[in-house]
């Protein structure tokens, strides 16, 4: 039997104290951490706190029986495996239960080795075994103790092993790119490129060339071949954020990439083979976009093979203190300030705030508070002022500077039609420094040269 990490918890549910004790002893001897519940109702109440990797329950119990508990678990935690223990006379019930989704059943009296084998199999399927999930490096940047969020992460870990396209739904600021990167990290493609593209941040006139590349001479200013972002993700994962902003004309080309696994650069008659796994995301309602004729239905179903729904920060309030402390540690180092935390009333205000801007808004508020505080403990008055300032629309300073710089450079290139020397003069920068700025923002001046009719 493989070694098991003891941080994986098994919840045993039975109204017989003797059986609870016997099962606990056998599983603990095998290296598992065990929690117990004397009823189905008690088990349901304890699952959010315990966060078990597996539930083992007796079929016949007073009050909620094992099947009733399973149905509740399946509705709330669909990826949490359940093993049911049953007497010989209830085998037909157990067979029916397995058809409904119960992982397995064991008859009493049970054989210890058979029990341990079933437990190990269930944990391997759920991603809860020590061998398969000995560390959380793949999702290290996603901090949560929320059951709904952990359910999303469990599904992400399971789908990562496949080649299926993944569609991430979530409000702005919920961490869609972080989840996409986590799926990539947990997949067999982890050693290959992860390329993230915000479809709404690239001007429509440039998006086709940026995504699919172009050939030398395809248009005025195309002085060399450019492989494009799809090809640059070859062998790895392409994350298309705000896919709902992609123009219809480019949706057709993206569909071809998914169907034929090849891309045709602008100005080329020959397709180029490409092997990419597509993960896409949007905060838009794409069904509404399809009904309005702004998004192709065939592309939607190609992208939406597996759907992951990110909860808003308001739905995972227990994560706010954990996230806040994580941000404080980062920002204290960044700004070289000794900040140890928020006052109790300040933290209570943070936990109860509406957070329309989600985690991005929370980060911005913590950053503002760290910058402005004159004491190690951030006061409630400072939090109140930050919340009144409507930080949901206030980007972090670095993000604001980057966005302004990019937009400024694009405007210069548009005005000068891609003439770098002229653009550098207008910006009062030398040509070498200006080229460095363009490279930092991955801007190609040739794309801005006027296309001849």
UniProtKB/TrEMBL annotation:
Entry's Gene Ontology BP terms: phosphorelay signal transduction system; regulation of DNA-templated transcription
InterPro entries for this protein: AAA+_ATPase, AAA_lid_NorR, CheY-like_superfamily, Homeodomain-like_sf, HTH_Fis, P-loop_NTPase, Sig_transdc_resp-reg_receiver, Sigma_54_int
Pfam family, one: Response_reg
Keyword Cell inner membrane: no
Residue span, Sigma-54 factor interaction domain: 142-371
Keywords assigned: ATP-binding, DNA-binding, Nucleotide-binding, Phosphoprotein, Transcription, Transcription regulation, Two-component regulatory system
Gene3D superfamilies named among the record's database cross-references: 1.10.8.60, 3.40.50.2300, Homeodomain-like (1.10.10.60), P-loop containing nucleotide triphosphate hydrolases (3.40.50.300)
CDD domains tied to this protein: AAA
Keyword DNA-binding part of the UniProt annotation: yes
MF-aspect GO terms: ATP binding; sequence-specific DNA binding
Residue span, Response regulatory domain: 9-123
Sites of 4-aspartylphosphate modification: 58
This protein's name: Two-component system response regulator GlrR
Source species of the chain: Alkalilimnicola ehrlichii
């Amino acid at each position: 039997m493989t070694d098991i990490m003891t941080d994986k918890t098994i919840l045993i549910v039975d109204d017989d104290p003797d059986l609870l004790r016997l099962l606990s002893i056998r599983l603990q001897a095998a290296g598992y951490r065990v929690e117990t519940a004397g009823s189905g109702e008690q088990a349901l109440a304890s699952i959010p706190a315990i966060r078990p990797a597996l539930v083992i329950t007796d079929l016949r119990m007073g009050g909620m029986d094992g099947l009733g508990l399973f149905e509740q678990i399946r509705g709330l935690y669909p990826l949490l495996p359940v093993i049911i223990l049953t007497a010989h006379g209830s085998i037909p019930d157990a067979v029916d239960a397995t058809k409904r989704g119960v992982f397995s059943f064991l008859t009493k009296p049970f054989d210890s080795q058979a029990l341990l084998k079933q437990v190990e199999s269930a944990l391997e399927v759920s991603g809860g075994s020590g061998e398969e999930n000995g560390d959380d490096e793949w999702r290290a940047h996603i901090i949560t103790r929320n059951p709904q969020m952990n359910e999303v992460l469990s599904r992400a870990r399971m789908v990562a092993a496949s080649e299926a396209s993944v569609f991430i739904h979530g409000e702005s600021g919920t961490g869609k790119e972080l989840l996409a990167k986590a799926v990539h990290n947990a997949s067999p493609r982890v050693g290959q490129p992860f390329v993230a593209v915000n479809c709404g941040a690239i001007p429509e006139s440039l998006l086709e060339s940026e995504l699919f590349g172009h050939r030398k001479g395809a248009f005025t200013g195309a002085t060399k071949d450019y492989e494009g972002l799809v090809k640059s993700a070859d062998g790895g994962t392409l994350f298309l954020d705000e896919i709902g902003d992609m123009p219809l004309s480019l949706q057709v080309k993206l569909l071809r990439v998914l169907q034929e696994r090849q891309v045709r650069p602008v100005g080329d008659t020959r397709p180029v083979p490409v092997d990419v796994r597509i993960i896409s995301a949007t905060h838009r309602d794409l069904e509404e976009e399809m009904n309005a004729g702004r998004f192709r239905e065939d592309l939607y179903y190609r992208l939406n093979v597996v759907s992951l729904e990110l909860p808003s920060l308001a739905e995972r309030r227990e994560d706010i203190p954990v996230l806040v402390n994580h941000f404080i540690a980062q920002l204290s180092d960044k700004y070289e300030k000794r900040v140890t935390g928020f006052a109790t009333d300040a933290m209570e205000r943070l936990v109860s705030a509406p957070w329309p801007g989600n985690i991005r808004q929370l980060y911005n508020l913590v950053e503002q508070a760290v910058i402005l505080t004159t004491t190690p403990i951030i006061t409630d008055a400072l939090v109140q002022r930050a919340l009144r300032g409507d930080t949901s629309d206030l980007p972090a300073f670095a993000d604001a500077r980057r966005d302004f710089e990019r937009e400024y450079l694009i405007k210069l290139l548009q005005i000068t039609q891609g003439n770098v020397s002229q653009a550098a003069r207008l910006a009062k920068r030398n040509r070498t420094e200006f080229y460095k700025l363009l490279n930092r923002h991955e801007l190609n001046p040739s794309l801005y040269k006027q296309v001849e009719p």
